[in-house]
Every structure is written in structure tokens, then in C-alpha cells.
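User: Sequence recovery, please. Input:
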């Protein structure tokens, strides 16, 4: 087991929701996610988001606490008003291009809000560190973040950030790629740096995130990082997987998108194209990282 030097503490958080809670709590996935990190966490916490049968889900969450797999769990909806207030975010601000990013955002925002450790390691529940991975990436990343304040977050290589390692690298050394992006799938951060009014800026580089997720958490963080020239480091020799995690009955019910969903996606796509054109050609925003053209939104 890896332990952070000195008095440093690190909290582990993950999430589940209606579509995957059974895979997380009925199977051994939660325990496996934590064990593969090989780290003595200050706390291990589950955020429960948007479930229908709350009592049933809570029974399994309580069992996970009793088995000492986790130390605590929270229903995000019980604390949504306090969480949004703490980060100066309004509920309606998640709406963008006909989509709502609220539910995508409450997992990581709740984790930041409830985190008691100095550092936060967050995984979405559909991501998991590879078996046998060295935990040294955590302690090494913490040391780098302490030495260089421009390093904002760290994570291993994931299925979805390989392209960024190739095309978005500012520099690299033997252990890390130094890149310009952000993902909520997995991040290690000094938790206090996620506090403050950092979620209401706009940078054109954030338009790369999917339209169906509205103005979600990771898009906002990416804007903040781009405007302030902050860096994500990606560990070269450690990997995590990202899979489509669904409860078994939902896997059997996968269907083609309805006409309504197709129409919504088309409307969202054209809305984004128009908004991007206005931001680039009229307001002068650039896809390049800089402190110019700062736009405050959702005030």
C-alpha cells in the first residue's frame, strides 16, 4: 500500500446513478476499484446520483459501509442546493444547446464538496485502474503538484485521452505527458484548488466536449484551466479503462435513438455551431490557450 509523505491525506470518491448502481453495489466493482489503487486512503466515499428506488440503493450502500468497503455515501440530491451555492453555480446554468449537464456534474461536484482529505482522487464508476498498476503515480503526482503550481490535475492514461497525449502534449519527461485538457473520468487534485468561483468562465477550447452533456463540470474546469494556463499531467506507465457500464436489464434494452432524440441532437448540434461562430467571429474567442477574451457566464 502506498502512503503519501508527511501529513498529506488523500480521499477516494466515485459515483453511481440509476443506470449502473447495481453493477457498482451488487457486484464487487466498488471494492475492486479501490483495491487496485493500492493506497491507504484517508476516506473512501460513494456519491449516489439520480436513482429511482432510493431505499433499495441505500440498503446496498449501507452494506458496503458495514463491510468497510467504503466509509460513507451521500445522495447528491440531498445537498444540491448547498453544493451549487458553495461553487457559485446556478441550476439553470447547466442548460446549453437544448441539453442539461446537471446530472453529469453532481458526482464530481459532490465529491469536492464532501472531500475531507487534502487531495482528492475521483473516478467515475465506469472507469477503473488497470490490474497490477503501481500506486507510485499518485505519490509522484502529488510531489509534482506541490513543486509546480501550474500543474492542476493528474491522471493515468485512459482510453479517451490517448489522442491528447499524442497531439496535445506541451512537453514530456520520462514519466509524464504535460497536456492541456481535463476529464472527469479520473483526476487527482489538491481539493482546495477546486473551490472558488472557477466554474463560470468560458474558453473556446471547451467546445470540444460532447453537445449532449450541456454545460457540464468538466467543460467548465477545462475553460478555467485554459484561461489560466494550467496543466494536466498524464502518467505514461499507468492505464485506466473506460467501459459502457449498465445494469444488466438495461444492457438487454439497448435501442436505436428515437426520432425525438435524433431531432434534439440535431437541434443541439446546430445551436452549438451557431454559438461557436458567434464566439469566434464576433466575440473574438480563440481555441488557443490564453488569458485573453475572458467571458464570465451564468452570473
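Assistant: Recovered sequence (299 residues):
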Amino acid at each position: 500500500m502506498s502512503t503519501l509523505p508527511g501529513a498529506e491525506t488523500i480521499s477516494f470518491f466515485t459515483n453511481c446513478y440509476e443506470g449502473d448502481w447495481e453493477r457498482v453495489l451488487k457486484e464487487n466493482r466498488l471494492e475492486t476499484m479501490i483495491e487496485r489503487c493500492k493506497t491507504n486512503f484517508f476516506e473512501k466515499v460513494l456519491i449516489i446520483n439520480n436513482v429511482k428506488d432510493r431505499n433499495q440503493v441505500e440498503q446496498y450502500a449501507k452494506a458496503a459501509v458495514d463491510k468497510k468497503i467504503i466509509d460513507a455515501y451521500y445522495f447528491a440530491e440531498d445537498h444540491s442546493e448547498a453544493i451549487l451555492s458553495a461553487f457559485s453555480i446556478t441550476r439553470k446554468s447547466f442548460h446549453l444547446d437544448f441539453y442539461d449537464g446537471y446530472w453529469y456534474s453532481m458526482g464530481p461536484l459532490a465529491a469536492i464538496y464532501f472531500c475531507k482529505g487534502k487531495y482528492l482522487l475521483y473516478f467515475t464508476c465506469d472507469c477503473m485502474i488497470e490490474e497490477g498498476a503501481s500506486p507510485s503515480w499518485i505519490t509522484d503526482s502529488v510531489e509534482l503538484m506541490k513543486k509546480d503550481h501550474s500543474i492542476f490535475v493528474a491522471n493515468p492514461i485512459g482510453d479517451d485521452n490517448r489522442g491528447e497525449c499524442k497531439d496535445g502534449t506541451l512537453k514530456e519527461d520520462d514519466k509524464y505527458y504535460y497536456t492541456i485538457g481535463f476529464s472527469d473520468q479520473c483526476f487527482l487534485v489538491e481539493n482546495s484548488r477546486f473551490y472558488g468561483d472557477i466554474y463560470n468562465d468560458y474558453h473556446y477550447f471547451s467546445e470540444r466536449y460532447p453537445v449532449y452533456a450541456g454545460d457540464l463540470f468538466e467543460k467548465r474546469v477545462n475553460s478555467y484551466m485554459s484561461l489560466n494556463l494550467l496543466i494536466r499531467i498524464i502518467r505514461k506507465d499507468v492505464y485506466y479503462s473506460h467501459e459502457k457500464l449498465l445494469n444488466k436489464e438495461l444492457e438487454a434494452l439497448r435501442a436505436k435513438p428515437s426520432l425525438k432524440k435524433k431531432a434534439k441532437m440535431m437541434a443541439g448540434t446546430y445551436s452549438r455551431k451557431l454559438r461557436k461562430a458567434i464566439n469566434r467571429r464576433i466575440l473574438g474567442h480563440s481555441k488557443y490557450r490564453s488569458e485573453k477574451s475572458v467571458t464570465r457566464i451564468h452570473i
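Residues 291-299 have pLDDT under 50 and may be disordered.
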